[in-house]
């Protein structure tokens, strides 16, 4: 009979755009005893988690809670609840995750209109606002931080245009929440989805979402009733009911309300992780956390430049928490990644679609975003590149990063 060894994953330095290393305090929280989901001790934790999520999303919204599942579950819950079949949906696309929003909108039965931007760039706000004015969508769905291309899309003007045109704005802030400012209320974002496994440094498995009363009004019009289920339309209006039970935000908010209407069995251990991860974010302070991500970005990019490695994409739209590096001609990118992992215990990411084999993606996110990780990666990358026959000015990458730390603080 086959014998299975004790589980013993290696300690890694994870410098990808997610999942990243998890703060040991979050891991510890996951090992605490499980509570029943209606135990008042547990429901108090749920309420505290909602309070902390409101701060994280910079919102006064009543609704801010996690959907159980990976980030995609939060995106799908928001889209399936807020997009009714036949709705007009505008999806501006500037990378792989924009295509995901497009696909989900199609599956919702929407009439989808897309506008696309060359990968490596983002939209000028007026390109989106003009499309909003001409297409007159019911919903606009857009990515804030594109991990596939390492770009960040400014959202304030798009938010204002959506409000003027009475369109709901859904935002994928999976990669940015906790690392880069996300101003839900100030930018007039109607529904925002965050990710746990990136800048929050919590394992994958929950997707924090928030939405305002405009979004809630729409999903309440689609709320499930006995009659609605049979006729296909909700009781409150002719809008069709939400065609998902698990992802019905109307049902989920009832579960997160003081009424605690039973829905699914809560992932108690994941909720401990989320609560602890949020506590750590707020303890650090959002502004300080954003500044920390910018500092390590500067140190990393100084080190990469010292090795004559070029960054991919337009400089002005670079996402602070992801550096996309052009693989030098003649270098086997996968061989470099493999050597980094197997000899140095460091993981960096490859890329998708048209960028496959052309760039490496290096993340500086959450708990992984620290000086010793950045220095370790730069030193190891230099050694591996030399091993691959690429000429690098010896030792300068680490020195350039150390200069940043010395002049700008740690
Ligand atoms: C911008 C963005 N959106 C959505 C997702 C999907 O998240 P998940 O894989 O957790 O479902 C990712 C994952 O990498 C992402 O980077």
Query: Are any ligands bound, and if so which?
Result: pyridoxal-5'-phosphate
Order of strands, widest sheet: 2-10-9-8-5-3-4
User: Helix fraction?
Assistant: 40-55%
Specify Rg, calculated over alpha carbons. 22 Å
Provide the β-strand percentage band. 5-15%
The biggest beta sheet is recorded as: 7 strands, mixed
Overall average pLDDT: 96
Measured between the Cα atoms of the first and last residue, the distance is: 53 Å
Query: What would you call the shape?
Result: globular
Helix and strand pattern? EHHEHEHEHEEEHEEEHHHHHEHEEHH
Number of helices: 14
- The chain-level structural class is alpha/beta
**E-strand count:** 13
**Uncertain parts:** none
What topology does this entry show?
Blueprint: E1 13-14, H1 24-30, H2 40-56, E2 63-68, H3 71-82, E3 88-93, H4 96-107, E4 111-116, H5 125-135, E5 139-143, E6 145-146, E7 151-152, H6 156-164, E8 168-173, E9 191-194, E10 206-211, H7 213-221, H8 226-231, H9 249-256, H10 268-284, H11 286-306, E11 322-326, H12 333-344, E12 346-347, E13 359-363, H13 371-387, H14 396-408
Parallel strand pairs: 1-12, 3-4, 3-5, 5-8, 8-9
Antiparallel strand pairs: 2-10, 6-7, 9-10, 11-13
Helix pairs in contact: 1-10, 2-10, 5-6, 11-13, 11-14, 12-13, 13-14
Bound molecules: pyridoxal-5'-phosphate.
Pyridoxal-5'-phosphate binds at residues 18, 70-72, 97, 143, 145, 147, 172, 174-175, 195, 204.
